[in-house]
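Standup notes
- DV: blocked on the single-chain target, sequence here:
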Amino acid sequence: MKENWYVLYTSSRAEKRVEERLKNEGYITYLPLHKAKRKWSDRIKVVETPLFNSYIFVYCDEYRLRGSLMLPGISRILYYLGKPAIVKQSELDAIEDFLKIAEGNKVITKGDEVEIICGPFQKVSGKVINIDKKYSMLYLEQLGATVCIETINIEKVKNEE
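- DV (later): unblocked, structure below
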């Protein structure tokens, strides 16, 4: 049988343990990880988290793929049109390229000093009051005002790590 990249669905938050188990069984795996800030009551820490929650890529033939279901932490195989979904190498390369580009970008969180990089308030700096996936609320001290800006239009100016 021909070997391909397939996708396995794991138990919640078990991706790293599943990857270790698969490697111990001789499978070739790919688990894309990215760095994210996590806040605890006493500290903020940067941790590596899976880019795709509960998914891991495995390179093997279809017969061996089905055998992987016996390992703890693996819930099921991802299917497409009634067959295990095959992922092209070019798609995995694109994920890897994305992660390399994203690695250099600074993560913006509540309380950070940022600068608006485009639009009518371009080059004005402010403090992040609130942030969600699409918009950030900033307090612009220079103007004495609070504004709502698309998150993509702001850039962190002060590294507080």
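- Follow-up: Helices lie at 15-24, 62-67, 89-103.
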